[in-house]
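Protein Record: Sequence and Backbone Structure Tokens
======================================================
Scope: a single protein chain, as residues and as a discrete description of its fold.
Tokens: labelled as protein backbone structure tokens, with as many entries as the chain has residues.
Position: the record begins directly beneath this header, with no further notes in between.
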Amino acid sequence: MAEAHQAVAFQFTVTPDGIDLHLCHEALRQVYLSGLHSWKKRFIRFKNGVMTGVYPGSPSGLLVVLVGYMSTTKYAKIDPSLGVFTKLSKHLPISKYVTEEGQRVVGGVLIGTGLWIAVTFVMRNVLKYLLSWHGWMFNRHGSLSFKTKIWLYLESARPLMDDEQYKRMEGLAKDFEKNMGPKLQWYLKLKSWWASNYVSDWWEEYIYLRGRGPIMVNSNYYAMDFLYVIPTSRQAARAGNAIHAIMMYRRKLDRAQIKPVYLLENRVPLCSAQWERMFNTSRIPWLETGFPLEWYFGFLPYSCFSCQCLTLRSASQLMVLNTIPMCSSQYERMFNTSRVPGVETDVLQHVNESKHIAVFHKGRFFKVWMFYDGRLLLPREIEQQIERILADKSEPQPGEELLAALTAGDRVPWAKARSQFFSRGKNKQSLDSVEKAAFFVTLDDTEQRYDAENPVRSLDSYAKSLLHGKCYDRWFDKSFNLIVFKNGTMGLNAEHSWADAPIVGHLWECQTVINSSLKVAKALADDVDMHIIPFSEFGKGLIKKCKTSPDGFIQIALQLAHFRDKGKFCLTYEASMTRLFREGRTETVRSCTTQTCDFVHAMMNNKATREEKLKLLKVAAEKHQDLYRLAMTGKGIDRHLFCLYLVSKYLGEDSPFLKEVLSEPWRLSTSQTPLQQIDMFDLKRHPELVTSGGGFGPVADDGYGVSYIILGEDLINFHISSKHSSPETDSHRFGSNIKQAMLDILDLFHLDNKANNK
């Protein structure tokens, strides 16, 4: 085992003649290279910190100001120091040490620098206030009052209640608005003045980290590979290239060289704060030994990305492209972050250094170093390490194969087992090897791929494998798992709380906990009803010809499909980003509106004319777009109500209104997967490189989870999930209803699909 081969930098023994020192030259060389690399990284970070700190000013701008100022004062025959040195000379013996000409130069530099700082400060604040205006998304602008938000909630709840229920809720809202609401609002205003974001920290803690149920299916989500193209069917080659590409991406993040993401067809950059924990991240709650195989090839330690936001790049892009930058603070947790389980709440653990990855294959865990002699391994070199793992025929040690099931079950048993078995010794070292890895890789021994001859079954199987696998072959606490299947197809499983397992030899004491977690996880995984629809009848191109927002069109179709599926409306969640704001994450768009319900009723009424239906559709689509804009610009209601509820709990006061608002289940949870947020390749020239998108599990036991991705002009992929145990839901049935609803709405416009596609 690798633990038996420990390398030391030097050894010494005490002899009668003194201390005999033996140096290991190779070890010292590695120490030197490691230090050199570390200082290079620190210099790059320091430089980026300076450049970001003085934005929108720049060192070159300072030089221009100084040269211009000194030249102007010299030409005008004015003292550059503006008399500063004359005044100082009365109190300090400056003239003894600095010549008169030197005094003028130093004084000019000081005054010029002060002028540059003042101009930069003014520009910075002007820019800040300009970017805080989001009226470009609206025909109107203005903040929403507390009272308005309360009544916006009532508006969203109206189509889901009968008259008696609504009257009761209206009474609760009026009482809350008059009595408890203003007091809670005062505390939130106080927090907004003090904190960088009054929602994000509480949202992360209470919505994600305090959840005690399994994060597999319930929280983690997945992302698929290219839909039509697989570069190679060789598992090791695909893994080697993908791992190298991800590590190169991490290096660019470390150096703040990644372009920001843009909103509105790559014209407005999005906050990338959530990316910071994508890599080197685990969600944590280990035993008494290490890995069966660890690859130690003398690879040089590599320092991973630390908390360096891309504010500078975003801001510089702003000046060039005249666009609006988004907060980038979440980038720092993309790497080296783990979710650590606790009895009451989990915590996110982020480390600054990570020079290896953790790999799982056939029940065994491997630690693979990514650097040698100060350089990142080449794709072929990584491929060779993967080939050695695939060729290894050793059996898992007792308990090792199922160990990752601890991350798939309930959080409390995992937290207790972690504290009892993984808090010291080799068990802790083994756990650290997984949790402090750059990311986790699973070499899956199954084959998954989109099959054009059987698209539904192939994609359903592919999605279920990415969402939960075998429940013990994914480390669900890690920020993300890169999953490479036997036939070269890839995918991701990502832990949601952030925008993992060593082997154990003496594991019999922990077997009960592992088996219990696996039982819970398998029951949850077996209950998932997953269905993928490659909807190719039409796409974004034809929807735009209807002069309707594609997202609004799809959301209204989902409401029509759901009503046909269940015969009723339900509270609907659509995720909207709020990354126009510092550390912004998401807000809710309540897609089930009175206007949408009116349209659905008209579609179900055979007596309603086509013109009436079109008119109602237009009103519903405009309403949806307005709600989406409100959510994006910080005027949504759900995060505000959530924070008000937390304040009421901190104050020990009970609000019937807030309690009822936050207890309502989201029986239809939806999200649009953005396509190609970063310009890595040209999809217009290479449409075959589109991804299949990703998805997530249902939020409610009797509800649906729907993720959709708009691929080019003529394809939309829907990812639908529900639970077999619910008699009310059926993912395949709902998929058929979605397809029919899309076609029925398009038919209102009397467009010839084929003609328009041509």
